[in-house]
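Input record, target 12 of the design panel.
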């Protein structure tokens, strides 16, 4: 790589660190370091990003699909930089009209300041825009009135998937901010909390101040080659986009956005968001052979040669079939292993379409020890997430396969988990049932 190549590991490492730290100083430094990648050096020495318009943004906050980069096989590519803000609602009861207008104006500023993702450019190789979702927890709705039927308390969520009660989120809301440009997510965050007077050249006239305070901050990154560049594990394949070595988004395991949209009720057109931070035991994962890792990530009937080092040889399809999903017991007896993808496929609907959609995922940069993973999915119903997550648990199956050979659940520990409701844009500012 040349000294000016924007893919250089040192630039990547710097941007990752800047996003993880946050703040206006990190934003300034990130802008300077990303200048060459953005190729927007001007006489005024200012960097500008494509502007947006509320008229071009979908009615559903979660409708990102047409505004994401796609790979050569047509699979959507998650944004490289992610910030998840945990928010605390500062009100003590029903929101006022002024508070709603303030939140609506703050979100509208971001819509105008940055284009929605790729701006709908089907051939875009890089996402210079911003994608975001504001979603509300059961505790928020309990404070302002009634909790919608589409949510369950966070304690019930983690209990339903057999996880530690201490991992349940305590936030009133979360804000997902995503882009391929670290400076974009940092600028958006700074604007929301009044740490800058302008954002991408627009005046910041409304913020979250006095309505939401920041109670937590979780950051992550994803991208081809990034895990090998940044993690202390030399067995990660050089081109892998995620730390466990395989790509995860295939057209057959990602449902349509219509499938994960709430169909009726007070929040029809919205969705629910399951937000998690996990840790991964990579050392134990890579103690296995490539064949064993393929078997546990996908299915033991998969040919490792056909999967390839990172799953790229599979193209647009994961290769997991209904027969694989129905053959967990048989594969357990035959191979002594079962696969993560074949198990989660058991939660697909009657048309064999998945019920949860990975929205953002990536290597967590906010965990204290080990390697972390940020995972955010959207689904029409909380039960869809619970059912899919439960299929991962080895004790859901009547076989003699050891937990470490039963998909990937045994390599994961949950640091935090929460469920949230993301209303459509028409009701995104402090909603009530």
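The sequence produced for target 12 reads:
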């Amino acid at each position: 790589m040349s000294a000016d190549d924007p893919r250089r590991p040192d630039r990547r490492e710097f941007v990752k660190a800047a996003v993880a730290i946050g703040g206006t100083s990190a934003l300034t430094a990130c802008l300077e370091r990303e200048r060459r990648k953005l190729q927007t050096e001007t006489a005024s020495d200012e960097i500008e990003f494509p502007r947006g318009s509320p008229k071009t943004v979908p009615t559903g906050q979660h409708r990102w699909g047409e505004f994401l980069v796609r790979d050569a096989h047509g699979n959507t590519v998650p944004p490289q930089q992610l910030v998840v803000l945990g928010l605390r609602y500062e009100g003590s009861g029903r929101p006022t009209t002024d508070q709603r207008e303030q939140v609506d104006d703050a979100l509208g500023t971001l819509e105008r300041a940055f284009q929605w993702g790729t701006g709908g450019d089907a051939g875009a190789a890089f996402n210079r825009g911003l994608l975001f979702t504001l979603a509300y927890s059961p505790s928020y709705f309990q404070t302002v009135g009634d909790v919608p039927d589409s949510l369950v308390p966070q304690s019930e969520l983690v209990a339903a998937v057999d996880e530690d009660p201490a991992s349940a989120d305590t936030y009133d809301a979360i804000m997902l901010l995503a882009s391929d440009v670290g400076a974009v997510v940092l600028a958006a965050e700074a604007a929301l909390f009044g740490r800058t007077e302008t954002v991408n050249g627009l005046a910041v006239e409304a913020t979250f101040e006095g309505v939401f305070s920041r109670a937590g901050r979780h950051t992550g990154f994803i991208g081809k080659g990034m895990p090998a560049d940044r993690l202390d594990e030399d067995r990660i394949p050089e081109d892998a986009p995620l730390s466990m070595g395989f790509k995860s988004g295939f057209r057959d395991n990602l449902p349509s956005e219509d499938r994960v949209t709430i169909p009726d009720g007070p929040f029809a057109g919205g969705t629910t968001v399951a937000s998690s931070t996990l840790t991964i035991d990579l050392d134990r994962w890579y103690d296995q052979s490539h064949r064993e890792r393929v078997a546990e990530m996908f299915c033991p009937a998969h040919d490792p040669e056909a999967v390839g080092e990172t799953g790229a040889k599979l193209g647009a399809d994961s290769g997991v079939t209904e027969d694989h999903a129905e053959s967990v017991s048989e594969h357990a007896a035959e191979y002594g292993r079962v696969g993560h993808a074949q198990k989660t496929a058991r939660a697909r609907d009657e048309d064999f379409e998945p019920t949860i959609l990975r929205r953002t995922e990536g290597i967590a940069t906010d965990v204290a020890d080990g390697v972390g993973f940020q995972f955010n999915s959207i689904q029409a119903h909380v039960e869809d997430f619970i059912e899919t997550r439960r299929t991962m648990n080895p004790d859901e199956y009547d076989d003699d396969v050891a937990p470490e050979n039963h998909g990937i659940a045994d390599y994961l520990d949950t640091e935090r988990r929460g469920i949230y409701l993301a209303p459509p844009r028409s009701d995104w500012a402090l909603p009530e049932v």
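The two ends are 55 Å apart (CA to CA).
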